[in-house]
Amino acid sequence: MIKTKHILETIKMVDELKFDIRTVTMGISLLDCADTDGAKARQKIYDKITRLTEEFVKTAEKTEREFGVPIINKRISVTPISIVAGSSNDTDYVKFAETLDKAADVAGVNFIGGFSALVQKGFTKGDEILIRSIPQALSVTDKVCSSINVASTKAGINMDAIKLMGQIVKDTAYLTADKDSLGCAKLVVFANSVEDNPFMAGAFHGVGEAEKVLSVGVSGPGVVKYALEGVRGQNFTEVCETIKKTAFKITRAGEVVAKEICKRLNIPFGIMDLSLAPTPEIGDSVARILEEMGLESCGAHGTTAALALLNDAVKKGGIMASSNVGGLSGAFIPVSEDEGMIAAVNAGSLSLEKLEAMTCVCSVGLDMVAIPGDTPASTISAIIADECAIGVINQKPTAVRIIPVYGKTIGDMAEFGGLLGRAPVMAVSKFSSEDFIARGGRIPAPVHSFKN
């Protein structure tokens, strides 16, 4: 039975503490859209997406109003386009990206993910064409997001792909230089990417997924911080219990709304991704949660331990609340999207190296990090390689969404707008990784990957 106090608690979470459903993402399989004629394939893609999403946004908005829980983004994820377009005779896939963008406009969604390729063990023809199309594709579209999986615990690390992606990131930054290299904010390089992630820019609809499915990402850093204010000075056992209980409430509230949307659309419910995803707004910060545990500033010694506690407790609470927890559930640490992270960088407590250490225990990796525009491609590749190594060895998803902001240097501010926020340009190592990246080949899978 739902009690009055539970209703009032939820109202407080929404009205005062910025609890929201960060995204409802419809995943759509495009496997049946493949065609040797690229124009025919694109028409099939457009027709299928617009047909299946005809009532999507309208239904989500109606449910949002009725339940009183904000739904910030409505998104689409599709089968990796390198797979679908790989059957065609096209020699670049920019037109496929434009088709996705047009379909997303008609559907009324905020983003569409799946301009993607999975190359952890090597390239197909379609994979390489798609990757080389990314800079132009992201410069001529508004809503398309791209992700490339270059490593996995089972396959190891594809250093040839990482070398190429360093240059692709640079080229994307250059082609969108007039917008503070915004194109790179829609491009993420993964290790151990998951098939059911509803969050951008890494979302794609995995080949093991159903024909269509609705996955949901809920978020509430402000709710967690408020709860921790009630246990100041108490030991970490109490901190963990408080976060778990709060995550349970957030997950339950989000799942009720999500399942109602699925029922109205007659679409299967996929997963509930409980990720504490911050926004640039005051009171909606993961960094401030860590500081509430007793750190003077995010990045101080103890930050990694605090984040590990937070990530684990969030997952434990979410798993108890739902049988459908998936995606990347945990805590995100995107610099530009978290006002506390931005403040920590400006205060000098948070560096790129500390962020890398934190990614060992959080849900994703180096996310929305701005670096100087003149950073060499090899350095970007090396940053990606380091992050992939963390994911591969620890058997977890890690990712890099890094933005070399053309025309800006350390201490300057890059402005991306909206949920993408703003980011201070951070320093990278002045020492070269050129010869390391030039080796190419593949770093083999770790010994603990062999579990047959």
**Range of strand content:** 15-25%
Query: Number of helical runs?
Result: 15
Counting structural domains, the number is 1
Count of DSSP strands: 14
Rg over CA atoms, rounded to whole Å, is: 21 Å
Order of helices and strands: HEHHEHHEHEEHEEHHEHHEHHEHEEEHE
Examine the secondary-structure arrangement and name the CATH architecture. Alpha-Beta Barrel
- Classify the fold: give the CATH topology: Anaerobic Ribonucleotide-triphosphate Reductase Large Chain
Largest sheet, described in full?
A: 12 strands, mixed
Class per helix and strand makeup: alpha/beta
For this structure, what is the CATH class?
Alpha Beta
* Helix content class: 40-55%
Q: CA-to-CA gap between the ends?
A: 46 Å
Uncertain runs with pLDDT below 50, 5 residues or more?
A: none
- What is the 3D shape? globular
Mean pLDDT: 90
Question: Could you walk me through the main structural features you see in this protein, from its secondary elements to its overall organization?
Answer:
- The strands form 2 sheets. Strands 1, 2, 3, 4, 5, 6, 7, 8, 9, 10, 11 and 14 form a 12-stranded mixed β-sheet that branches. Strands 12-13 form a two-stranded antiparallel ribbon.
- The radius of gyration is 21 Å and the shape is globular.
- The chain contains 15 helices and 14 strands.
- The chain has a single domain, classed as Anaerobic Ribonucleotide-triphosphate Reductase Large Chain (Alpha-Beta Barrel).
- It is an alpha/beta fold.
